[in-house]
Fold this sequence. Notes:
The structure holds two protein chains of two kinds. Chain A is mainly alpha-helical. Chain A is built from 24 helices and two strands. Chain A has helices spanning 3-24, 30-35, 42-53, 56-69, 74-98, 103-110, 114-146, 151-168, 171-201, 206-209, 221-231, 244-260, 262-265, 274-310, 327-335, 359-364, 379-386, 391-429, 435-457, 464-488, 494-516, 543-561, 567-576, 582-587; strands spanning 338-340, 372-374. Chain A starts with a helix and ends with a helix. Chain B is mostly helical. In chain B, 74% of the residues lie in helices and 5% in strands. In chain B, a hairpin with a 2-residue loop joins strand 1 and strand 2 (49-50). The mean pLDDT of chain B is 91. At the A-B interface, helix 5, helix 11, helix 12 and helix 14 of A face helix 1, strand 2 and helix 2 of B. Chain A: InterPro entries: Na/Glc_symporter_sf, Na/solute_symporter, Na/solute_symporter_CS, Na/solute_symporter_VC_2705, Sodium:Solute_Symporter. Chain A: Pfam families: SSF. Chain A: Belongs to the sodium:solute symporter (SSF) (TC 2.A.21) family.
Amino acid sequence: MSQFAINVLFVGASFALYIGIAIWAKAGSTKDFYVAGGGVHPITNGMAIGADWMSAASFISMAGLIAAGGYANSTFLMGWTGGYVLLATLLAPYLRKFGKFTVPEFIGDRFYSKKARLVAVICLIVASVTYVIGQMAGAGVAFSRFLEVDATMGLIIAAIVVFFYSVLGGMKGITYTQVAQYCVLITAYTIPAVFISLELTGNPLPPLGLFSEHDGSGMPLLAKLNEVITELGFNEYTADVDNKLNMVLFTLSLMIGTAGLPHVIIRFFTVPKVADARWSAGWALVFIALLYLTAPAVASMARLNLMTTIYPDGPTAEPIQYDERPNWVREWEVTGLIQYEDKNDDGRIQLYNDTEAFAPTAEQRGWAGNELEVNRDILVLANPEIANLPGWVIGLIAAGGLAAALSTAAGLLLAISSAISHDLIKGSINPNISEKGELLAARISMSVAIIVATYLGANPPGFAAQVVALAFGIAGASLFPALMMGIFSKRVNNKGAIAGMLTGLVFTLVYIFVYKGWFFIPGTNNLADIPANWVLGISPLSIGAVGAIINFAVAFSISKATAAPPQEIQDLVESVRYPKGAGMAADH
Amino acid sequence: MADEKPNAEAYWAANLRLIAGCLVVWALVSYGCAILLRPLLAGIPVGGTDLGFWFAQQGSILTFIGIIFFYAWKMNRLDKKFGLGE
Lengths: 588, 86
């Protein structure tokens, strides 16, 4: 059977499974559509949160970025797991007690203002659409490779699949489908990693393999990797970073974004009890950690494998002939995501770090520039092929990557559509809208979001995980502070919250747009996105943390200068703090 | 009903203390050991690199899991102790 046929078989079978589950658990009422009737066990919910959470960014893109950046990109690992501590302690149990459908609904009620609710809707939509752009970019890469088409065609196919997939089902369908998707994606991610870890270190557990000895050289794996890549002009993989401020802010940005993203928060509305919201966060992190502990192993091992493929006799010997390149390079060339240019006309592939410091060595070796451009988003998908694993493993990783991208895209689109139909239309424009009309509005808004995200996904403002990181910064700077202050302070009032959210959002967006292009339209940026241009060395990916600090400061000072919230709001805050009586709230 | 208010206040104060403790550990492993304090831990070797690298790529994630389960367990006991659970 050809590889193409195997891929189609695996992807097709996994899709049949999801669609089967979606039909079996078809959403009936609007409440089912949004929160799955409130009856999901913490472990099941944890798994569903895991699938919802781990997107194309975690599955397809993250290990590639860690492979390229080494220690410096550990920020993704800590940021996207550490946020769960904030969720479990600062937000989830209280929002569950509050017992409403959506994040803007909480903000609107707590800050007793329709305006606050509308501002929250805007923040939610901006963050979620940015996030979906990243998913589209990732899913596009996956489809283009496995259906052997170019990247734009892959993106369009991804958009069509996401459309049918999300617009037809609701939350209930999604919860059980996502449990299936979690199983598919974690199997797909770990199996190739186990094979590769065995091959390179003899240890079947990738997280242990990462710190084991490299078979063949007898050196620790990471030391071997450092040696190979420094010979080619790259920084040491484990090297410390100079710009610690940026690293701290980036990690913080990802953490508060995790806690502020609406599609994860609404998951906690679906557990029966307040205590379950806390356990759900713990279980979710356990399931997420299975992938996050494997990812750094995948990253370093894939990097080493890539280098040994190109330099089979070691980095100081000649690299391989282009005509003898392995099959996976040929296949990825079709997508345009690997590009080769023979700059010194010697017919070989020189892959190295083209810097001034390395120029003398390169000249001495007769090299005229780096000749192989490898898109970082392909690393995980190409990993089994780079390691010569059997065809079914490649089919499996295709199914896993698509599961990751689709489950998250579906969760986000649900959050966007409920914000528009429930908060915007039912909550303020037309409160008398029928249930049927509300569902229709939800589906139309999903479709519009898909179209916008696909258009911008064709020229994404970064690799999938970086685009997603921007979305986290936006959510962290706007929604997270409002939610947290809403629970922990009785003094913050409507005016303070609205001003805080707006300044946090606008400040963060402007900083991002200046470097990444206005509304992410390529070519409209005012300054090149390079470290030399960043204010105090803070990258656009890290600015969300600063936005959040500004949000808190503005909200507190304006609240101090204006009247305290009315007594019934202070009572509401009081009641959110104690689990007692949550059952009644859920029936609302 | 009369003594419910101070009871609730004590519950909330205990919760805030617990959260503060959890977040100190949370910040210490990630921002501390993995980032800012890494140079101080550079002398402790772990599989070809140093302890700070391990914290950045594994240690902090494992600690986060521990923190959440510890918090959930402690809060369940607080809920019962103060009679404010469901």
